Model the fold of this input.
Amino acid sequence: MTNIYPSMRFGLNTSLLRDIRFWIALFFVVRLVGIANAPLETGHNWRQSLTCMISRNFLEIDNNILYPRIDMAGEKTGIIGSEFPFFNYLIYLLAEVFGYEHWYGRLVNLLVSSLGIWHFYRIVLQFFNREIAFNAAVVLLASIWFAFSRKIMPDTFSVSLVIAGLFYGIEFLKCEKINAKYAILFTVLCSLGMLVKIPALSLFSGLAALPFIPNIEVKRKILLGGLSTFCLATVFTWYFVWVPHLLETYRFQLYFPKSLSEGAAEIVPYMALLAEKFYFAALHSYLGFSFALFGLFWFSRKESKLYITLLCLIILVFGLFILKTGSVFPLHNYYVIPFVPLMALLAAYGLSKLKRNWQIAGLILICLEGILNQQHDFFIRPEQVYKSHLESLTKRTIEPGEKVIINGEQSPQDIYFAHCRGWSIDPLQMQNPKYLDSLQQLGARYAIIDRKHDIALNDSLLYLDAHYRIYRLHSAL
Done:
């Protein structure tokens, strides 16, 4: 392999250190720390619990991938209008073979996201030099990708599928003869990536520049354009035909898209938080963001109009996505993930303008800053450990199949760990007897009180400890 950094002097084999596969493997091993943890770390427990819940229900209730199902829909079936549950289904398939465990999603995500980094490197290498490709991949490894690629969430998973698909699309355009394998991989991977999380469409949108790429025969462009149309058609069918059908039939919704004007109005009060998603949350490094700005400046001055057009297309589509999500975007850091590969590329482009020794120093500092700002996310919060024992309590006190009410703040986390079905309600609602009576009329038979919002009910107390009260409601007597 070509020496990227000839001035490097290490005790280790420098050819190994210059191989991006070594760093992908090393980051993979590091992120195995706590890989078997239940979703009880610092952030995004509710989203991870929801992913696990849908996966477990494929195993225990119905494995039809067209009907994702949650546990907190009360008297409803639990079938939900959500993203296409391919990620959940992979977890289910592992559970079918090995028995269910919380953490399978962590391993699936880590494997696919690591492959995403490899394909990202190979794409950048197609258009820039090895130095920029290497630096971009390392910056991406230490970005928000570092923590979220091991969460039980589909965000880096979906972007990785699209990146891999785009790589095979590029290979399809380059190869001498029409290659069906590349065409199939492009279509399947890009379709699945956007189905799993539609924001990954922002990277896919770069293909709109396809007609303007010189030195590629028109036939290839038309074929790839047709395959791209098929990818978009599958995404449209799921999100704008099937999901509305699920909502109309089963009456439970996961996400609430806004009109562009509504989204803009919601975002205005959160402009500071919106900016933070780019200057910090994306790369988890202020230095990395500084280099991304520096790289953007040089990129806009030095690169071709085609590259600049492609960059603008991705920014435009991602901007529309921000508006469609409204206040959700600035309030949740993981929504920036589809844009992070572009920021990593720009940061690497900025680094490339320095002398090589300074590039090495800058890259090391960016990685250190990114990793240190995320290392806490590898560990379960001690104050949350008690929730992992909830299922053993409910198995001893609650009859199988009976519905429960839990003061889980309308989050799926508590009811997921209870391994029950029913209602997760606001703690204040638990103090409203009329509301509890209405839920009992809909089938609730037990109440679980997390004592961080403690309240005593006038029902039959079945269990009490430092963390939980479990009651049999009067309607079950």
